[in-house]
Specification:
The protein is of the alpha/beta class. The protein has a domain at 5-223: Rossmann fold (3-Layer(aba) Sandwich). The chain has helices at residues 43-50, 73-80, 98-109, 114-127, 143-155, 173-190, 201-206, 225-229, 234-241, 256-263, 291-301, 308-321, and strands spanning 5-14, 17-27, 32-36, 58-63, 66-67, 83-86, 161-165, 193-197, 210-215, 218-224. The protein is globular, with a radius of gyration of 20 Å. It binds adenosine-5'-triphosphate (ATP) and magnesium ion (MG). Magnesium ion is lined by residues 43-44, 88, 165. The site of magnesium ion has 4 residues, from α1.
Length: 336
Amino acid sequence: MGIEVVVEGLTKSFGRQSIWRDVTLTLPAGEVSVMLGPSGTGKTVFLKSLIGLLKPEQGRVLINGVDMVNSPERDIYETRKLFGLMFQDGALFGSMSLFDNIAFPLREHTRKKESEIRRIVMERIEIVGLLGAEGKLPGEISGGMRKRAGLARALVLDPQIVLCDEPDSGLDPVRTAYLSQLLIDLNAQIDATMLIVTHNLDIAATVPDNMGMLFRRELVTFGPREVLLTSEEPVVAQFLGGRREGPIGMSEEKDAATLAAEAGTAVADDARPRRIVPQLEPSPGLPPRRAVARRRERVMGMLDRLPPAARSAIRETYAHSAQAPTLPMPATGSGA
Ligand SMILES: Nc1ncnc2c1ncn2[C@@H]1O[C@H](COP(=O)(O)OP(=O)(O)OP(=O)(O)O)[C@@H](O)[C@H]1O
Ligand SMILES: [Mg+2]
């Protein structure tokens, strides 16, 4: 389970509006990746391009040898069945019960018997913690429950690649912490390759194996989580620090004059290295994530090519993880 997604030189525009250029990255099989980026930088467009719903003008998205940009539509359609997609807005049908919403892809794309559908749907409902709510309409439940229903629906076809578009938007901090744990637990249970688009710094700090960021029509960087979490790139540091000072402005990127003015008042905490919070582990009783060993080998193999701060952070990660106890949910911020 878990399939590698290779993105090569992807370039997308709408008419004269360029969204991003030359995006190249690989989502390693079975690993969890997060894509960050200010609003409007084309994160949702990127997800839609991965499943072939939008067509970039240049580049390729390779999955099992199928190019989701240029292959025949029939192959793209087949490959799309490997995906589970959780939309930014939940996208549930308002007149259908949660059960029917979650069953929808099974009824639409398979010829399974109703008894089999029931079994699968109830299993997914249990995974996302919605047992008992299956008869409710989307309008009768909270936003957080709707999010989880959207996630359950993304899971019914046994996806090998799971894309989540801002799964945390509209959730309170406690629900977001549960969601983070749910994403890691899910990865342990199904070993799917996962890409999560989020603005949430706690999710970014605790969930992914890899992280990337879109900004100014480019992929700033993509790699092991330690690379972004220790990055001194101004835009990355500003975003992860949640600060006003830096290249990102409220409505758009700041102009050069504003940036120059700010340069005189550089923030002091840029100087000290940021500490890395440990990544979440699966809840007790669940199997270990199979991607962990693969990731360790992969990352150790690229160590020489990484910046020094990332290198020592990775060494630290693995020095501790060798005999690490299972922490159900380390509180972010309190350190360890
Ligand atoms: N189908 C479309 N036709 C034309 N323009 C589009 C289309 N879809 C998106 N865009 C434009 O592409 C840009 C990026 O949109 P996108 O929704 O991907 O941003 P985003 O990074 O997901 O933002 P947010 O964090 O607010 O969700 C926006 O300027 C948007 O208006
Ligand atoms: Mg979006």
